[in-house]
Amino acid sequence: MEELPSLLEQTTADICINKEDDTVTILHADPFEDALLELQYIQNEHELIFQFEDYQLSFGITLDGEFETYLTKVPSITLLLIDMETNTAESGVEVPLRLK
Question: What are the Cα distances from residue 34, in Å, to 37, 39, 53, 54?
């Protein structure tokens, strides 16, 4: 697979696992310019892809081990736009996750 531009090169972001309810959340500091259609987890490359209409972004780090365990069993991921000055959520969206 070709190397994609990285979300982590463009903004501050973090991925969180909630072991109590088996959910995955991504916190990010800047809004996306375009609508995010879906997330894709490429299992053999341990890579999370953000799929927009005309382009893709990689999350920017390898997500294996415990991350892979959760990414292969959740149907969607919650994304929260965080105000970095106040550490509060400005908006959120649940995005479908497709395994590849």
Answer: 9, 14, 8, 9
Domain limits for position 89: 7-99
Question: What is the pLDDT confidence band of residue 12, given thresholds at 50, 70 and 90?
Answer: very high
Residue with the two structure tokens 């996750």:
97
pTM over 0.70: yes
- Indicate the Cα dihedral angle 18, 36, 75, 16, nearest 10°: -10
Is residue 2 in some structural domain? no
> How many structural domains are present in the chain?
1
